[in-house]
Amino acid sequence: MKPRIFITRKLTEEAVASLHEKYDVRMWDEESVAVPRAVLLKEVAEADALWSVLADSINREVFEAGTKLKIVANMAVGYNNIDLEAAKEYDVIVTNTPGVLTETTADLAFALLLATARKLISAENEIRKGNWTSWAPMRFTGMDVGGATLGIIGMGRIGEAVARRAKGFDMQVLYHNRNRKPDAEAEYGLEFRELDTLLKEADFVIILAPFTPKTAGMIGARELDLMKNTGVLINVARGGIVDEAALYDALKNGAIWAAGLDVFEKEPIPLDHPLLTLPNVTVLPHIGSASIKTRLAMMNLNAQAITDVLEGRKPKGIVQ
Ligand code: GLV
Ligand code: GLV
């Protein structure tokens, strides 16, 4: 019997063609609808390998059910959706897809920063609503990005890629990270700051840290209050790093000027979420890595990791 792989989202055939030859590939048949829990648990019980996406909670229950499971290949760089303790206990390898999405995610971070600073989405919407009645001196006016000060929280690969872009915009780049990065400081002219100082000095703050018990709720009311009232917060990492209730208050009462969010505490963000009532929030549906080339590269990495494990080789991208 061929080893069985379960994939939790519908993928293009070309992405899984290499797997079909050797394996029994089963795939949830919707691209934009999450696999129901009952289906996931039933499928994983028969699977040797699980191909997950960041929206799947791969918790202890999944590892308990997956008695034949050897690998969970998570098609993302983040892996906070996976219970690593349980994976270890059940002796299942977990892999992610770093490296290939660095530049694509940095592009999106910068695009969201520009869109939020210059109100691109709401300005565009006004045209479509028929509200562009004349050129208006102070309408649609935003914040300058060129020459401003950027504070990056989390200086990993994506942080460095954002810093390089910021240098092209003549920005002063501050960063905060668990440990200092002397090489990146020298190479890109970055300046390390304690978190509070960064929040006070930056015109734009971009969050690029992983979601961990330490970063959960790291940006709350106190931190938002330290930011300039002309400040802009961009989150392209994980929703839970920012306290959304505190963010709502800060945006509503003018403690900060605007926010651009690609990630949320709960995804998809519920349509009745208070943040969606605010004009100074720009929202995107978690598309940091969403270029055609990058998504195909992530799929390739996942397919390769699964093939490696099922053929007894050590895969790339082991997170534990
Ligand atoms: C995206 O958020 C990822 O972790 O790949
Ligand atoms: C703007 O288009 C200008 O000419 O100032």
Automatic annotation (TrEMBL):
Family statement drawn from the similarity comment of this UniProt entry: Belongs to the D-isomer specific 2-hydroxyacid dehydrogenase family.
EC number(s) given by UniProt: 1.1.1.26
Protein name: Glyoxylate reductase
Organism this protein belongs to: Sporosarcina psychrophila
Alphabetized UniProt keyword annotations: Oxidoreductase
Any Pfam family the entry gives: 2-Hacid_dh
Cited SUPFAM superfamilies: Formate/glycerate dehydrogenase catalytic domain-like (SSF52283), NAD(P)-binding Rossmann-fold domains (SSF51735)
GO molecular function ontology, one term from the record: glyoxylate reductase (NADH) activity
Domain D-isomer specific 2-hydroxyacid dehydrogenase catalytic, residue spans: 5-319
Superkingdom per UniProt: Bacteria
Sequence ranges assigned to domain D-isomer specific 2-hydroxyacid dehydrogenase NAD-binding in this UniProt record: 110-288
